[in-house]
Write a structure and sequence with these properties.
The complex is a heterodimer of chains A (284) and B (285). With 284 residues, chain A is mainly alpha-helical. Chain A has helices at residues 12-40, 50-62, 78-83, 86-117, 119-132, 141-148, 152-176, 180-188, 193-215, 217-230, 236-245, 249-277. Classes of the chains: A mainly alpha (284), B alpha/beta (285).
Chain lengths: 284, 285
Amino acid sequence: MSFFRIHAQPGRATAWTLSWLLFAAGLVAYFYSAQKRHRENPDDRVMPTVTQMVQAFEDAALKPSDEEEAQANGSQGIFERFRRSMLWKDTQATGRRFLISVILLFPAVVLGLHMAMFPYIGAFFLRFFQFFDKIVALSLLPILFIAFGIDELAKIMLIVIGVTPTIILDTFNLSKSVPHEQIVKGFTLGAGDFGIAYRIVLKQIWPRVLNSIRLNLKAVMLFLFAGEMIASTDGLAYRIALLRRHMGMDTILPYVLWVAALLFLVDLGMNALNRKLHPWFREA
Amino acid sequence: MGNATIRVENVHVDYPIDGHSVRKVLNGIDLEIGSGEFVSIVGQTGCGKSTLLRLILAEEPPTRGQVLVAGRARSQPDRFCGYVPQRYSLFPDKTVLQNVTFGLEVTELRPFSRLRPDGRRHLREFQVEALRYLRHTGLAEADARKYPYQLSGGMQQRVAIAQALILKPPILLMDEAFSALDPATRSGMQRLIKELWRESGTTIVFVTHNTREAVCLGSRVIALAKGHSAEQGSSVALDLSIPNIEFDSDEEEIRALIRRVETATLPPICTSQPVSKPVAVHAVS
């Protein structure tokens, strides 16, 4: 059997079919169980049917949110209706926090680079961040809410504390992995310390740093969701937490898939951008 | 080329092992390399050839003694000494042209000056100059837009040489620069570097473990050899002037010189002579 042969070469069609098989199996298993539960109890709320989920998602994506209801009129186009919907408002709120958090990761990259390039800065920060990285960020949540209140700042600080040390240490390691010959070469070509740090080392590690940020987006989202679920009045995670109280699985499941689809698109976009901006970059 | 002399005065290099003992690498090296010389440093693996080069480059300080380049002890590498290592000689994120113009850009242009018209004009001048150097080292104009990973090993080293020479450094240090190349490419590169040396008059220090390469390239060969015991470190075993050897010189003459260098660099167990005192020899051409 060639399934467990290292040199096996699955055909294009076979590989494509195999890659979708688990999705299909998951969907079949879910809808079979949902149908079974609904036959036994037509009011079941734990496993909504396709119709229920489509209806709930349509309500979330195309019906005006509570604040917009008064201004809404029936003759709006689909984009206008989406723009006034609960789903869009929640996506906007979460997206804003997500974007601020991702932007705040860039100073971490600069710090990691400086720690690797300048031994005194490395000696000053490294041990601290190695320890800091081991602190479970969620355990700091109560402290953050006490220190920064339950506003946006606490949620963003949670993300910064949760992900920043990883990015700092990752950038540090990536910078250290640049061959020493390149640094010596830079000096012999007349570059100064900062020229070497920014024009040689940072430019070389940049695609890998972007990859590292891309792979940490899920962690960013995880901390953001934790903050939103506990203390927020809008956002995708807030909505999921709110609907949990009403057993609104018909909306929760499409929301979960919506978040996954958004993250998947961001990941895809960053990967494509990285390849476009750095044609020389070939991950070993 | 002005004063491009190198003086290595009673240099010792020890590396700590496990925090309590030391490994002696170089033991009392004394050398004087004059302006415009092409010096090959040869010796067996681990005898401290590259360490000696790093000292001249000011990449690391000696444990004892001093290294003076143009009469001055340096604290870190600078553009006075060009450098071509065996590997990682090019910046992978830059095209061939950007690699060669990099030195001119960082030394002649201010950051972000390429956004201004005069900065862009200077950059175009640098590119014209870089293309001239690339052609001189045997590369085609079409290669200028390629990235290093798209070039063969030999082409990469040609670019590295152009990159170093465009700044006209008084001294060029080459650390096993051709070791990773196939014999045919290597032979072409050897002829190229000798030709460039004759034209530019740059002082070249060329580290190699290949005795034939050392003899055919250098106007002088310095052989390092390890001492009798591991604690002794390496010292200069032979300092040989080679005035007129070419790649197509008499094969017997080349072989005789190779034998002489190899005898000096043999491990202590194979020789009965101590290697602590350098022997200055002048070959008769």
